[in-house]
Every structure is written in C-alpha cells, then in structure tokens.
C-alpha cells in the first residue's frame, strides 16, 4: 500500500518544474438566526487551486479548501473552528485520477427512482468519519459515450478497518434517446453490498427511468416519468419494495415569466407528505418566496416566507422566517431549506 501512495505522490510532483496557474475563490456569510444558530453566526471558505499543463497532454492540479466558522459550542470571543480539505488531480482528455476529499463514485453517480427502501451508497461522511479513511482515491474514464468510475477509501495512519477498501464502481452511458446508470458497492465494515442499475429513455417528449436496487436484505423496482405540457412539467413515480411498503408520488412544476410553483404529493412506504413551493421575481434583483408542507401521517405542518436580494458582484441578502412543527434538526425547511426561526444573512462569493 505504501508503494501505491508513494507512486501517486511522485505523479503529482511532476509538475514542479514549470510555474503553475494559481486561482483563488471562496465565499463568506454573516447572519443572524434566533433559534438554530442562537444569534449571530459567520463562516467563510477560501479555495486555492494550482494547475499545471504538462508536455504530454496531462494536467495536474491541487485544490485546498479552508473553512473558517464560528464555534457554536463555545461562546468565548474568538472561539472559532478551522477545517481544511484537499484534492490532488491528474487528468487527460479521457481519464482523471483524484485523491483526497472527493465523493465515492457510487454515491456521486447513482440516481434511481424515489421511494426505494434499499440502503443508500456510503457517502463521504461515512468513508471519512465512520470508517476513518483519510482520503478517497477515485478514477474516471470516458470513452465513446461510456463513462466508468471506481473509488476506494484510503487509510494512511492505521485507523480504518482496512488501509485500501470500500470499493465503489459506477458506469453511465447514452445511446441516442436511451441511457443507463449502474453502480456497485462492496461490503465492508458492516455496510452492505449494493447493486443498482437503471435505464433511461426520452420518448415523445417524456423522460422515463426504470431502476432496480438490492442491498442483500431489501430490493426495489421503480419507474418514474416526467412530461412537459406547456409551462407545466408533470411527474410521477412508483416503487415496489420487497419488504417495506410500496412508494409512489406525483408532482407538477410551473415556470413562466417571474412565477415558479412546485406542487408534490408523496407516499413513501406509508408516510404521506404534500408540499407547495412558490417564488416570484419582483425585479431589481428581488425574489419573494413562500411555501408550505404537511406531514399527513404525523399531522404536522411546516411553512416559510422569505425574500432574497441579489446585490450584484456575488453578494446577496436573505431575510426569512420558517417554522416546522415536526422539526428535529430545525433546518432544511421547505424547498429552499431554510433554518427554523428568523434569519437575516448577508453572503458574498469571490
């Protein structure tokens, strides 16, 4: 394993002979929320990317992300959290090799039909936090309309169950109006082996997807479709689960001029929900938003009203109020995923 890591490091070191292109970016937020944040809060991201084109058609890049935020667990002035992450990449026109804080490919690529009770693919949090991997090694290859992907969790300090494991595979492709998605996850550290495949088609304006998923305990078969009718896009899905109850839902999205409205009904294995989200572009960079959602099974409701102002130059201002009777985390309320309570926030992108 050490030889693999040293070889990877040697590859990324090849670009040192010539000067690299360096770019900076980031964002910052200063806000107030009276419930979730307990008052004023702030955060900022600084992203630095160094890129070098090599003589043989390859390019290398290194990206560092520094996240700076207030520490909710300490009210002492100057108590802050500093989190960092990195990604090293070697790429060509047909392939990419990435190492660091990247998404495992099954979780990143797979897209099935709503309502499946099959366990989801392990994401970056599971790989890093639960399994104690220090990085993800990911490879992408593109050829003749077919994309293939593979990823592994990599442990460099001996904390993970295995130093090179948690393999995920994925593939996508398109052939005219047809396409496919496939993904696989190996069993490791108590997480299940997962197999998932889907086929897509675009027929007379309708987008159709059929999917099959299996985690060794549960399996599901689903079909979903959407069809545009003027400014309205109609959608629906049905998923049959072998153990859990079946799931189904319908939706309608309207968008015309300054108005956008989305209505949905879902019955997820007996859990019934309805939602309505609407927005209106007032003009001069101002957008008004409102929405309501009802948990018909638990007989609880959630709603929000908000105004968003585009100040130009990557700056924006948000003023919102949201309330969720059944909230647990008190966040992600409605389609825009607002925090519970009153929020006022000024954000900048650089």
TrEMBL record:
Pfam families: Porin_4 (PF13609). Residues 1-20 form the signal peptide. Keywords: Signal. Residues 7-295 form the Porin domain. InterPro entries: Gram_neg_porin_domain, Porin_dom_sf. GO terms for cellular component: membrane. GO terms for molecular function: porin activity. This is Porin domain-containing protein. It comes from Flavimaricola marinus.
């Amino acid at each position: 394993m050490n030889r693999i890591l040293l070889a990877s490091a040697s590859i990324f070191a090849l670009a040192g002979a010539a000067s690299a292109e360096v770019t900076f970016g980031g964002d910052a937020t200063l806000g107030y929320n009276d419930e979730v944040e307990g008052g004023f809060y702030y955060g900022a991201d600084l992203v630095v990317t160094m890129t070098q084109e090599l003589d043989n058609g390859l390019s290398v890049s290194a990206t560092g992300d520094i996240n700076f935020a207030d520490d909710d667990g300490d009210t002492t002035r100057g108590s802050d959290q500093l989190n960092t992450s990195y990604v090293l990449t070697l790429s060509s026109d047909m392939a990419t090799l990435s190492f660091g804080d990247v998404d495992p490919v099954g979780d990143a690529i797979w897209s099935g039909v709503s309502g499946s009770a099959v366990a989801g693919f392990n994401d970056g949090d599971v790989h890093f936090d639960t399994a104690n991997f220090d990085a993800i090694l990911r490879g992408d290859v593109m050829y003749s309309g077919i994309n293939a992907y593979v990823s592994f969790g990599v442990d460099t300090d001996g904390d993970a169950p295995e130093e090179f494991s948690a393999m995920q595979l994925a593939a996508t492709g398109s052939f005219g109006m047809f396409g496919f998605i496939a993904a696989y996850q190996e069993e490791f550290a108590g997480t299940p082996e997962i197999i998932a495949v889907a086929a897509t088609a675009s027929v007379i304006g309708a987008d159709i997807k059929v999917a099959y998923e299996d985690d060794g305990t549960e399996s599901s078969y689903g079909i979903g479709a959407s069809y545009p009718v003027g400014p309205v896009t109609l959608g629906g899905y049905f998923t049959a689960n072998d153990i859990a109850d079946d799931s189904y839902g319908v939706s309608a999205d309207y968008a015309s001029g300054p108005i956008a409205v989305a209505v949905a009904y879902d019955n997820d294995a007996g859990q019934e929900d309805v939602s309505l989200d609407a927005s209106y572009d007032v003009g001069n960079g101002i957008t008004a938003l409102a929405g309501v959602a009802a948990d018909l099974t638990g007989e609880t409701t959630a709603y929000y009203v908000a105004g968003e102002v585009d100040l130009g130059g990557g700056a924006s201002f948000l003023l919102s109020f949201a309330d969720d009777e059944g909230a647990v985390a008190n966040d992600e309320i409605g389609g825009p995923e607002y925090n519970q309570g009153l929020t006022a926030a000024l954000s900048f992108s650089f």
